[in-house]
From TrEMBL, chain A:
Domain of life of the source: Bacteria
Annotated protein name in UniProt: Uncharacterized protein
Automatic annotation (TrEMBL), chain B:
Gene name, Swiss-Prot/TrEMBL: dinB
Sequence positions that bind Mg(2+): 9, 112
Protein name: DNA polymerase IV
Family annotation (Gene3D superfamilies): 3.30.70.270, 3.40.1170.60, 5' to 3' exonuclease, C-terminal subdomain, DNA polymerase, Y-family, little finger domain
Cofactor note: Binds 2 magnesium ions per subunit.
Residues the UniProt record annotates as site (Substrate discrimination): 14
Alphabetical list of PANTHER family matching this protein: DNA POLYMERASE KAPPA, DNA REPAIR POLYMERASE UMUC / TRANSFERASE FAMILY MEMBER
Localization annotation: Cytoplasm
InterPro entries in the cross-refs: DNA/RNA_pol_sf, DNA_pol_Y-fam_lit_finger_sf, DNA_pol_Y-fam_little_finger, DNA_polymerase-Y, DNApol_IV, PolY_HhH_motif, Rev_trsase/Diguanyl_cyclase, UmuC
Gene Ontology annotations of biological process type: DNA repair; DNA-templated DNA replication; error-prone translesion synthesis; SOS response
Active-site residues, record numbering mapped to chain: 113
Length: 88, 420
């Protein structure tokens, strides 16, 4: 079954202007082992407020098995949780 | 200059909000709004009614307020989801924020409805219809749910307009359009006309809003008294109330609960009353008011309703005092039939500085109890409702602050994935 929005571990930096940048993300692979990936670049980010819940949506690239892969992650401002929206 | 009033109404509010949450936050694939679905209570706890239904469910004849069993007979494949009141509050707040960006004067009418005074905003947004469409689309693109906007020159007409055709529409109902758009509608559609008045009006041969509008007000006054004048004015599109930003002060504070089991002994019933009193008094104290009249209502297993009330010697907001009065009323009222539903209601609210009539036999308990209540309120505010409770509720079957929105309705447990 396709997993729903999954909570994930993220290392992020918060700059003095309040800008958030995710730097590393930890994902589970098929064998259920955790792997840390560096976030190479952020393609775009946008603020959302669906259902009255503020969140920041990031579309970014990680390098997995030697190729760049696009992932979408969201930071929930109220609960301070990061979730993986989709890969690719 | 004529006023411009908007009425904003969320289309099947609870269900839309649930759908947006599941799609956008939880990442589910099915949109509840596109399948026959409903937000419904819990049959096991005897809260078994439909709270909101989707448009496809409406086509099966499922109505808000139906019992779950009736709804399933009409639509066997109805998808039912539990309510989620924390979410509804956040959706409602977010919508009100957007409305306040558009208009300086916003009146929240209920959790999913609001009035906006848009008089004099032509220079900002263009004509009323353009502004309303912009507003509706902004809510949809930012928050993910659809609303209806009704436009008119007063509140009653704006409210009638937002009810015309759903979902995601803007309608106008200006005074010159009343005859064409509102008068052909059945009289039961008029705001303020409930099922009982509808029957009475039908008996008088009044079936449409137009007929009501053209009835001699004296006839209506003879049958309905003051209320007759009100509905006659509404049918003619007359409403002098203004968009009021601040809600009028509460006239009474009440709380009631349907108990998950039938209560057949007085001590359990009094425990339920204590838990109800606890919540009522917390609200009284939070608003810094006191109540003079206490009423208790009982619904027994045969759905017979009874109630009784009394006036206290002096106003109070102390849990113990209200509970004591409630127990006294309960003893006078209860005939021993097993109970299904209990309620406490307080009225004759006194605001501000109140001089307390000290009872000679009170033994100074009043001051001690009010200090105790204040401390308990502070602890609950800081650490949550369950952080401190009376020992009597420790192992009992009754939740210590019954009524209102219970914790499991605030945040349901989902089978998988995240709950944010």
């Amino acid at each position: 079954m396709k997993m729903l929005n999954m909570p994930v571990d993220v290392i992020a930096t918060f700059n003095v202007q309040g800008k958030i940048r995710p730097n590393y993300i930890r994902l589970e692979d098929e064998e259920h082992t955790l792997q840390t990936f560096k976030i190479e670049n952020i393609v775009f980010s946008r603020e959302e407020k669906y259902a009255g819940m503020p969140a920041i949506h990031f579309c970014c690239n990680i390098i997995r098995n030697g190729c760049a892969q696009l992932i979408h992650i969201k930071y929930h401002v109220k609960t301070h949780q990061w979730v993986l929206v989709r890969e690719g | 200059m004529n006023k411009i009033i908007f009425h904003i109404d969320v289309n099947s509010a609870f269900l839309s909000w649930e759908a947006v949450y599941r799609l956008r936050i939880r990442g589910e694939k099915t949109d509840l709004r596109e399948i026959p679905s409903a937000v419904a209570g819990d049959v096991k706890k005897r809260h078994g009614i439909i709270l909101a239904r989707s448009t496809p469910a409406k086509k099966y004849g499922v109505r808000t307020g139906d019992t779950i069993n009736d709804a399933l007979k009409l639509c066997p494949n109805l998808v039912m989801v539990p309510p989620h009141y924390d979410l509804y509050e956040s959706c409602s707040e977010a919508m009100m924020e957007i409305l306040k960006e558009f208009s300086p004067c916003v009146e929240q009418y209920s959790v999913d409805e609001a009035f906006c005074d848009m008089t004099g905003t032509v220079g900002l947004y263009g004509s009323a219809v353009v502004a309303a469409t912009l507003l509706k689309d902004k809510i949809y693109s930012e928050l993910g749910f659809t609303v209806n906007v009704g436009i008119s020159t007063n509140k009653i007409l704006a409210k009638m307009a937002s009810d015309f055709k759903k979902p995601n529409m803007v309608h106008t109902l200006f005074p010159e359009e009343i005859e064409q758009k509102m008068w052909p509608l059945p009289v039961g559609d008029l705001f303020f006309v409930g099922p009982a008045s509808k029957r009475k009006l039908h008996a008088l041969g009044i079936h449409t809003i137009g007929q009501l509008a053209n009835t001699d007000p004296d006839i209506l006054r003879a049958h309905f008294k003051k209320y007759g004048e009100v509905i006659h004015a509404f049918a003619n599109g007359i409403d002098l109330s203004v968009v009021a930003e601040e809600a009028p002060p509460n006239k009474g504070y009440g709380n009631s609960t349907t108990i998950p089991f039938d209560v057949d002994d007085g001590s359990t019933a009094k425990m339920v009353l204590l838990s109800l009193a606890e919540k009522v008094c917390t609200r009284l104290r939070a608003d810094n008011v006191m109540a003079t009249v206490v009423a208790v209502s009982i619904v027994d297993i045969y759905f017979r309703h009874s109630s009784h009330q009394m006036t206290l010697i002096s106003p109070t907001n102390i849990t113990n005092e209200i509970h004591k009065a409630a127990c006294k009323l309960f003893d006078r009222l209860w005939d021993g039939t097993p109970i299904r539903h209990l309620g406490i209601h307080t009225s004759k609210i006194v605001r501000g500085e109140v001089y307390k009539q000290i009872n000679l036999f009170d033994m100074n308990r009043y001051e001690k109890l009010s200090r105790l209540d204040a401390v308990v309120d502070t602890i609950r505010e800081r650490y949550g409702e369950d952080s401190v409770k009376r020992a009597i509720f420790l192992k009992g079957p009754v939740y210590h602050m019954a009524g209102g929105i219970s914790p499991e309705k605030r945040k349901p447990m989902y089978k998988e994935g995240i709950t944010l």
